[in-house]
Every structure is written in C-alpha cells, then in structure tokens.
Amino acid sequence: MEIFVTGIGAISCIGNNVQEHFDTLIAERSGIKKGSHPHSERFLVGEVPLTNEELIDRFQLKINGSRTGLLGCVAAKEAFSGHLLREDIRTGVISGTSVGGMDVSEIQYRSYMNNGTHDISKYKEHSSGNSSEEIALELGIDGFVNTISTACSSAANAIMMGARMIRSGALDRVIVGGTDALSEFTISGFRSLMIFDEEWCRPFDESRKGLNLGEGAGFIVIESAASIEKSGSTSLARLKGWSNASDAYHQTASSPDGYGATLSISEAMKVANLKPEDIDYINAHGTATPNNDLSESKAIMQVFGEQIPPFSSTKAFTGHTLAAAGGLEAVFSVLAIQHGYLFANLNHRNAIEETKLVPVTRTTKVETIRNVLSNSFGFGGNNSTIILGEL
Amino acid sequence: MSELKENLKAQIIEQLSLEDLTPADIKDDAPLFGDEGLGLDSIDALEFIVLLESNYGIKIADPSKGREIFHSVNSLAAFIESNQ
Amino acid sequence: MKITTSSYISAAGAFLNGQQKFTFRETNWQKECYQQLGLDYPKFHKMDHLSKMTVLATELIYSEGHLNALMDDEPELLFANANASQHTDMKFIESYTQQGNPSPSLFVYTLPNILTGELAIRHKWYGENTFFITPQFDSSLFAERLYHAARKGGNWCLCGWVESKVDEKNKVTEECFLFLVALTDNTADRSSFAAALDELLTNYRNGNSGNLNR
C-alpha cells in the first residue's frame, strides 16, 4: 500500500512556517545565535524568537500549555491546514518528544525551592504525553493519539509508526512528527556531557566539537490512497521507507563502526525497495558531535560504498531540535523533492580525516531529486531512517 | 592517605548516585572503569572531573588524560596527594 | 501472537508466570533482587530505576531458560509507561539547580528509552526498539504494535510497562511488567489478546497468581 504526504508544517529558529524555512535554507542563513533567556543567553542556540504568549496570539491557538505543546500545535496546525475532519477518515496524531513540558516544570520547581509555593496542577504539563494530547485538541482530533519518546529519533519513529498504522488498516490518515522546546534541562545536560559547542556547530567537519541546541516542531500528514480519494488532498511526496535498529553499544555514544546506523539505513532501503543509486540526497542526522558524525559517515560508506549521494546536515541552520529533528528534516526532505534543492551543510571547512567525506556545502539547485533518505539517531542507541520520494 | 581513600569512595558513591554500593564494596586497587571493576565509562569520567574540581580544587582540562588518573582509588588518591 | 512468558516486579516481590519467586525486605529492593538473582553485572549499579527494573525482570525470564529461544533471533523491544523518566528528571534538575553541577551520569537516564538501550547492550540485540508514553497501560496499543511486528516478519517481541514515579511528597511508586510474545503463534485475535494482557497485569498488581495459559 502506498503512503502519501499531503501536508507539511514547521517552526524553528529559521521560520514560523514552511515557506520561511524554505527561503532561509535557500538563503543559507543560520538561525543560531545568542539566546535570550537567563539559561540560554551565554550560549549559541536555535531559539524560536516568540514568547509563549506571542505564539498563542499569532497562531490563534486554543490551548495554553507547555512550550513544547505550543510549538507542536503551530507546526501540526500548518501541516493539517486545508484538511477537513470527516467521520469516514480515521485520523490520528503520533508525536515524538523528549523533554515534554520540562519548561513548565522548571518554572514550578524554582518557585517551590525559592518560596515553597507549589502549584501541583502545573506538573500535569510535565508528562511527555500531554503535548500530543494538546496537539490533538488543537486540531479537533479525538481519535488515536500516541506519544513516542526515544530521544532524538522520536519524530522519525512517530512517522514510521503512522505509516504502519495506515498499512495495518488501523488509521486512514495520521499527523506525525515531533516537538521539543529548549530548556535549561537540556542545555545543562548536553553541557555536562561535554558535547555542547559554545561556537557555531560544524557538522561533518574535522574540527567539530559538539552540537548547538535548538527548539521547534515539524509535522507531516500522511494518508492512504483511499483516504485521499475521500479527502481530495493534494499529494506532495510519497513516504516510501522506514526502519529502526538498535546500536547495542552505549547509552549515549554511537558505536565506532556505526553498526546500528548501517542496519537502519539498509533496512529502510529494503522497505522502500530502492537500490543505493536511487537515493539522490541524504539529509544526515549530523549533530556535529565528534562521535555521531564519524559513526554516521562510516554507516553511509558501508551502505553506499564508492557512490555516496550528496549529503548534508541541516542542523547548523536549526540547531539540534532533539525529538523534533526527524519531523523538521522530513519537511526539509519533502521541500528538497518538491523544488529540487540540496540544502547546505553550513560551517564546513575540512573533511573528517578518517573518512574524507565532503558534504554539500552550498544550497544547490539540481534537476531532480527522486528519493531522500533522512537519518535520526537517538540516545539509547535508537537509530531510525525514513525515505521520502517523488510522486 | 587511607582517610583520603575512604573519603574518595564515599564521594564516588555520592557523585555517581551508586545507591547500591557502600565504600566497602570498592577496593583500593580494583579498576573503576571497564567491566572488571565498577563498570564505569566515559560519562562517569566526566563526573570524576567534577568531583576533583569541587572537592579538591583540582582542574583537569583534558578529559582524555583522565583514564590513567581515574584507574583506581589508589591512583586517584596518589594524583590528589601530588597535586594539592 | 501469544504471551509465552511474563514477569512482574515491584516492592512487593518478583513474579514469574504468575508465581512469586522472591519477596523483598530491604528498602533498596532492586539491589536485593539483583543479589537474589545472583547477577554479576557491575553496570547495573549505575543505572536508573527504570533500567534496573527492566534488567531484573528480563533476567527473571532468562533465569528459567525462557529467553534462550531468542539467542539467535533478537526480539523487537516494545516498552511504555505514563511518566517517562520523571524520577530521574527530578534528580537531574536538583543536580543543576541545587548543587550547581549538572550530573552527566544522571542526564543520560533522563530519557525513558535508555532502558531499551541497556537491554540491547547487555544482550547484544540489534533489532527494533521503541518507547511509548500513554496515560495508563494500553493493551490495545501493544496489540496493534505487535501486529506491526508480526507483519514485519519478526518472531519474538519483548514488551514491558515500566514505571518509576515520584510524587510531591517524595513517595516513589514503581513496577515493571514484562511479557514475551511469540509473534508467529496465531491462536489469539487482537482483542482477546488485549483482554488477556489486561487481566494478567491486574492479577500481578493484586498479587494474585494468575495462570498464564488459562
């Protein structure tokens, strides 16, 4: 059964909607800069330059929850715009998140520690599942709602699960993706792991030191052909392949040989029934940590051998948006196919010595992009790959 | 020296949240890292850097140097003695 | 799909296929369980409670030889809970707000899916693994996902519901329910499978020794 993408939505530091993202990717303009909050002002981060109140106001959101929930609502709403709810189209929401309502919990925790006042009800926002419920509420969807929390591969896994639920006949149409807000929690955490670069992150560069954190949300709407017949939606691309594999190496580090990533990439190509030469662009996970980029490069070399397709990491534009990354990058993959663009891997100077692989360093117009492979690898050794293709 | 070692064991348990262990479970010369000893890894090495700085005022700029210093309670104690 | 083995651990004790294996006396019952199982896996002591309980409940299944079938055929791992890594999240927040030093070894465990990573590392399983957040144990979601796993062509799925939650009075509530599913056995349809799963967990929670194959 074929699965079609009929809607895309995005919000991150480089745009409040898909068009703004596309324009910024073409203009090669990173959204990463000094943060504007007490916990982020000393660092380079990819913040969405709108407060929670501004988000609610500008996007006329019905819900007022955690920032993770609000960002998710903005992107999911854009993806679902133009789609109508119908009883004969069973519609679900599957969203990935890693921090959930941590931003709300942090504020509550501080107020408790400082003056002993506790608004327990606020902690209901903490639960990761809450942001997905809020998205469903915002869209008026009362069917299947699910949350996946597998760190930075959460959104890719949500997309994969959505595809399977359509194939299994459980749903006709699903809004899938991920959302995560920036918080002191994640900044402190990645700094403590010493994989947080205080300068611009440099994916796939020999001098890379770590990631820049970002925030945002990316969602796509996927539908079966039967659903499109009823909804009349316009297809933008096809979702062709997906896979997840375990790296079984370390809680946070990728294996030196990229075994889990290799499994994930090759299995997704099997699901899509594609050969290496059918892939025209790889949107890499490319976090710019020394460990990920080397491990991912080795996996790409394993699968593609001498004929490595053009590849790049767009994380130097958006920062690493954690659970949202796979959603945003799925949107970028659809844009690449729709408009025929390879997006720049910003800040790249020198190839990693061990691999000599050079990513696409400038956003480049090409004749056609048939299939894009997008990687999302998470802590826990949770490696996922999805493949989007032309209609 | 033996007092320093006992303190170190308690601090290691505290810093790494090893709530299952008591200082008596950590032998002076047993390797702290790898599957033979406490099963610690690179993430825990970062905790040792914090521990040395906050409890003993010793800074280790290059985490890759840590492996030798953090080999065992004995080597940690010797390093602290010679750097204070 | 058919449940071939199940285990359940909480402060009340450890159960395998409905039979109580251990009772716990210590406050640190996870360490006690580790000792009772005679494990020698130093990494265990570094883990958060979610990972510890999952390792223990898996070992319990292993202890009876029920997992041997998987030695050459890695299982898919499907796990879920309602509160993600909330217990460790709170400890990590304390490390940077109160002590001023964010702890990397705590941060590692502020993701619930690290527990599937821990299982993969211990048993060298390279298969698919995922972690869901649902308001409560959702047997029909497991049934749906198991159906996907079967369609994919897998033989085994190790599933779990693992919770470690701390409330505002610092009271910790913990349980771990594991069930091993043979995907190729088609004796039960999805809805009767889900109903059996609910009953099994209810029995464990009530301390009843339910018979798995009833």
Question: Could you explain how this protein is built, in words?
Answer:
Chain C: It comes from Taishania pollutisoli. Chain C: This is 3-oxoacyl-ACP synthase. Chain A: Belongs to the thiolase-like superfamily. Beta-ketoacyl-ACP synthases family. The complex is a heterotrimer of chains A (391), B (84) and C (214). Helices cover 35% and strands 19% of the residues of chain A. With 391 residues, chain A is α/β, with parallel strands linked by helices. Chain A folds into two domains: 229 residues, Peroxisomal Thiolase, Chain A, domain 1 (3-Layer(aba) Sandwich), CATH 3.40.47; 149 residues, Peroxisomal Thiolase, Chain A, domain 1 (3-Layer(aba) Sandwich). Chain A has a ten-stranded mixed sheet, with helices on both faces. Chain A has a two-stranded antiparallel ribbon with strand order 2-3. A two-stranded antiparallel ribbon of chain A has the order 11-12. Chain A starts with a strand and ends with a strand. Chain B has a single domain, classed as Non-ribosomal Peptide Synthetase Peptidyl Carrier Protein, Chain A (Orthogonal Bundle). In chain B, 52% of the residues lie in helices and 0% in strands. The model of chain B has no long low-confidence stretch (mean pLDDT 89). Chain C has one domain: Thiolase/Chalcone synthase (Peroxisomal Thiolase, Chain A, domain 1, 3-Layer(aba) Sandwich). Chain C has seven helices and seven strands; from the N terminus they run βββααβαααβαββα. In chain C, helix 6 packs across helix 7. The C terminus of chain C is likely disordered. At the A-C interface, helix 4, helix 5, strand 5, helix 6 and helix 7 of A face helix 3, helix 5, strand 5 and helix 6 of C. Strand 5 of chain A pairs antiparallel with strand 5 of chain C, so a sheet runs across the interface.
